[in-house]
Amino acid sequence: MTSPTTLRPTATVQSEPQPRLRTSDLLAAEWIKLWSLRSTCWVLGLGILVLIGLAAQSSFDTYGNWPDYGPQQKSRYDPMTEALSSVGVAVLMIGAGTVGALTIVGEYASGLIRTTLTAVPARHRVVLAKVVVVAGVMLAVGLAVSVGTFGVSQAVLSGRGIGLSVGDVGVPRVLLANVLLAPVAALVGMGVGALLRHTATTVVTACAVLVVLPGFFKPSVHQWANDLYGMFPYYAWRTCLSQTHPRSGAALPTVAESWTAFALWPLAAVVIAVLAVRRRDV
């Protein structure tokens, strides 16, 4: 006859809670992800050189043709138009928007987003970390473009005595607007990427929203249409913020309206990106 066996309750092992990731860790991770994309270095590096080259070419053309300008043409001439032309801005916004879109679309395409959200369940923290890194990098790119194109163009134009300095009226505002073009476009690209999550479709849509779509709107007799037209960053820059002495008119945005457009577009894009990532499945 066997003696009864006494069953002892087994101790339950409680797993220790996972430590909360620090914001600095999230930023470091997003920094590594951004520069791990081969396209990042090429697009940003070559883009800066191309824009400075365009500014130099345009300035040399003006330098050579200046003696042929008439008195009225010379009186209306704004040397800041040589620093960053409409073509240069289109190139800048398309490049920045593409990089911004790829920072979020590339992660979905590779499947890395699943690992990221498993490690950081608070999805809004991931998106905000991306926003900080992308905005910071693009702000540096915009600064390099703004300073580089201004320095080259005004150095060339100074040979004709028409170059501007940083302290001249209207110049600081134009330089600041030129700096902000890159981060604004990049964050808009991120917002589009969070919604579409398809590389080709996202890049095309971001470029269309930033550069192509404003071309379909033209000033008209309807003030509401003019106000809508003036809210596009590309148009606000081209017709107002790029000029040392902006023109005034019912169909033209004011300086305050232009800065509002610059602020609302990236803010709306960040909100869209946060909501899209939080509410949609991976």
How would you characterize this protein structure?
The chain has 282 residues and is mainly α. It has one domain (24-60, 79-279). 70% of the residues lie in helices and 0% in strands. The chain has 11 helices and no strands. Helix 2 runs antiparallel to helix 4. It is globular. The N and C termini lie far apart (61 Å). Residues 9-15 have low confidence and may be disordered.
Number of domains: 1
Strand content: under 5%
Number of helices: 11
**Can you give the mean pLDDT?**
87
Structural class category: mainly alpha
Q: Stretches where pLDDT falls below 50 for ≥5 residues?
A: 9-15
Distance between the termini: 61 Å
Q: Give the proportion of residues in helices.
A: over 70%
Quantity of strands, as a count = 0
Gross morphology is: globular
* SSE topology string: HHHHHHHHHHH
Largest sheet: none
Radius of gyration: 25 Å
Q: Nutshell version of this structure?
A:
The chain has 282 residues and is mostly helical. The protein is built from eleven helices and no strands.
